[in-house]
Amino acid sequence: MKKASILMIVGPLFLLGLYIFPLWNIMLGAPQYPDPLGMNIHISGLQGVNEFDIQNIDGLNHYIGMHTLPKPEDMWEFSTFPIVIGIMVALGVLVGILGYLKKVSYKWFIGWFLLMSILGILGMYDFNQWLVDYGTNLDPNAIMKLTNPDGTPMTYKPPLLGHVKMLNFDVTSMPATGGWLMFAGMMFTLTAGFLGWKNSKKPVKN
Amino acid sequence: MKKYNFLITALMASVLLMTSCGNQNGNGGTNSALASNNAEKVYVAPGEQDEFYAFMSGGYSGNLTVYGLPSGRMFKEIPVFSQFPTSGYGYSEETKPMLETSFGFVPWDDSHHPDISQTNGELDGRWIFINGNNTPRIARISLSTFETEEIIEVPNSAGNHSSSFITENTEYVVAGTRFSVPVPQRDMPINEYKSNFKGALSFISVDPEHGHLDLKFQLMMPGFNYDLSHPGRGKSHGWFFFTTYNTEEANSLLEVNASQNDKDFIAAVNWKKIEEYVNNGGGTKMPANYAHNVYDESTHMATSTMKKEVLTVDPLKVPGAVYFLPTPKSPHGCDVDPTGQYIIGNGKLSADLTVHSFDKMIAAIEGEKFDGEAYGIPILKFEDVLAGQVKSGGLGPLHTEFDGAGNAYTTFFISSEVVKWKLGTWEVIDRKPTYYSVGHLMIPGGNSRKPFGKYVVAMNKITKDRYLPTGPEMEHSAQLYDISGDKMELIYDFPTHGEPHYAAGIPAELLAPKSKKIYRLDENKHPYAVTSPTGSKVVRDGNEVHIYMSTIRSHFTPDNIEGVKVGDKVYFHVTNQEQDFDVPHGFAILGQNTSELLVMPGQTKSSVWEPKQVGVWPFYCTDFCSALHQEMQGYVRVSPADSDIELKWSLGE
Questions:
Q1: From A34, which residue of chain B is nearest by alpha-carbon distance?
Q2: What radius of gyration, in Å, describes the C-alpha atoms of chain A?
C-alpha cells in the first residue's frame, strides 16, 4: 500500500504540467506555409506555436467565414479548467497522503481516477462541441462559400485527433506535452489503484 | 633514299591521323563526363538553397544585387544610390532623404565595391558597405533587413573609387578619391592641376553597435589618382594600402599622359598613427558641406542632415604615417593576402604582378632606406620592399583574391583569363579563360583573414556571344569556377545585372538564420502609422490631406474617401497590418507622379499624390497578395478646388 500511495501522490502532480504545457496542438500546413501555422490549446487559452500564428490563422479563416479564434475571456472553459485541475490535483494528493497514512483504502484511488476520467471525457466532449461550432457556424456573408461534391455547404471542423485534408491545408490534431503528462499521471493513479487492490487480496500479516 | 623518305612521311602521317582520332574520341568522352559532373556542382535542386550569398555591385544601376552561389540565381536587387520604383525607394516620403546630397537630390550613382563587415579579420555578416563613385558617397546596408540604412557623402572627393573597404574590425570604412580636385573647390585653370589639386583619403568610422558612420578624418594626399585600396590584416592591421596612377599629374589625355612613368606608387598609410594624432587634437578643421542620411528601422523613415565641417590631416604633419611603395605600370587592384604579409599591385599595363612584403616594408622604414620623396612623402626603394614578381604571361592584371590555402587568383583584363599562382614561390599553377575581359573576381571571404576557397566568380566586362542576343545592350557575364582542386574548373556561366565591379560573398549559414521575416507592428514608431485598422483616418491640414491607411488581406481601410479637392496635397500613409512572412501589399493611384509603394508586413510607407483633375480615381494593391487581390481597391473622389464637400472616409458601407 505504501508504493501505491506514493504513486497516488505523484500521479496527480503530473497534471500540474497543464499549467505550463499545452494540452492539445493543432497544426496547419500548406504549400505556401512551409513553416506550418499552429495553435497550442492550453487550459487557460489558445496560443500560437509561433508568435503571430493565431492572427494568421484568423486572417486565412475569414475568407471561408469562420469566426476568429476565441480569446481566454471569450470562453468560460479557460477560466474554469485551471480551477478544476487545481482542485483535482489537491484532491488526488490528499487521497494519496491519506492512503499512505492508511486512513483511506485503494478504492478512493480508483474513485479519483474515475472522477478524473469522467471530467476528461466531458472536457473532450466540450472541446469537440467547440470544434463543431468553430468549423460549421460560418458567416453567411463569407467571401468563399464552398460546397461538397454532393452540394452541401462545406464545413471546416478540425479533427479532434489525427489528420484531415481541408482545402489546401493539412490539419493535424494531437495531444501535446501537457496532455501526455496528464495521461501519464492518470496512469500512475490507475496503477496505484491496481496495486492497492492487489495488496488488499494478500493475507494480512501478523 | 627517295623511297625511304616516302615511308617516313607515310608513317608520320598515319601516326598523326591516329593521334588525332584518339584525341577526338578522348576529348569527346571526357568533355561530356566533365560537363555532367559540372552540372551536378552547380545544380541546386528545387527547394534546396545555395551555399553562399554573393553581393554584386550594380555599377551604373547604383544598386547592389544579391545572388546565390553556385546556382547564379538572383534573389534581390537592393536599392542603394538609385531610385527604385519597384519598392518606392527614393520615391516614398520616407526614403527620399536617403538620396539627398550637398548637390540636392541625386537619384543615381555608380556603385562599385561592396565589402562585408568583419571582426578580427573574419566576415561577421552584420552590414555590407558600398561606394557611390560619381557623387562620392558611402552606404551601409543591413544584412538582417537587406535594406540601405545609411548614406554619407564624402566631401573633397571626386570619383569615389578606392572605396569602400573596411579595416579588419570594421573600425573604419575607407573612401579614397580617384580624381584629385582643388580643395576646397574653387574657380581655377584646369592646367594648373599639378601640385595644386589634392587627393583626399577619407576614414569613416563605424559605430560598433549601430554601424553609424562618421567621417573621422581626411588625409590630404598629393594630387594623384587613388585607384583601389585594401586594409592590412593580421600583422599589417593598422595600415591601409592604396594604388595610385597618374603620378604624372596629367590633366588631359590621361591614357597617354598618365602612362609615362615606369612606376607609380602604392601608398601605405598607417591609419592607427593618424588616428592617434587626431585623437590627440591633431588635424585641421575645414568648412565643408556634406549630407549624412540615416534610415531608422523603427520609424521606417530616413532623415538627412548636412554636416558643415571636416577634419583634414596633412600627411607631412604625422611623421611615419605615409610611405610610397614604387609599383610598376599604373597599378589598378591593391590586394592584401590573408596573412597580411603580401601587398599585391596589379600593374594593369604590364604582364607582371608586383608583390610587396610587409615585413620588408617595415624593415626599410626602420632602416630609413628612402629613394627620394614625393611632395615630402618618403619613397621606399623598390628592391627593398619587393617580395617577388609573378611572371604570369598574361596581359593586364587587375585584381587578386585568395583561397586561404596559399594560392592567389588574379584576373587579366586584356588576355581574358584568371591565373592561379602560389604565394611565396610566385609560380603560376593554372590559368583559365574568361568570357570576356574580366574585371574583378570574388572568392567568398577572399579579402579577409579567412577565405572560403571553394568557388571563384569572374565578373566580365564584355558579353558578346555568351547568351541569346538582346539587341545592342546586354547584361554582363559572370563565370563560376570550382577552385577546390589543383586546377580551376569552369562550371557555370550566368548574366549579372547592371555592371558588377567588385562583389562580396559569404556562407549562407552566416546570414540566412538572421534574415528578418517581418517588421513588428508593435515596434512601428512611424508618426503616421496605424497599428490597427480601427486607427485609420483622414485628416486635413490646410491643403494637405493625410490618409492614415491600413492594409490587410484583402482590403484597404478606408477604401472610399471623399472631400479631397483639386490642388490638395494628398499623403497616403500606408501601414501593412500583416505579421506573416512574405505578405507585402502595394499601393498605387491613377495619375500619381511618383512610383508605387511596396509595403512589407508591419511597415509604413507614404506616397504623395497631387490630384489635378476632378473625378473619382481608383487606387489598388499592386502586389498579388491573396486570392482576393483583385478586389483590393478603392476610390478617392476629387472635387473642384472651391467645393465644400466634407471630408469623409469609410470601408464596407
A1: B47
A2: 21
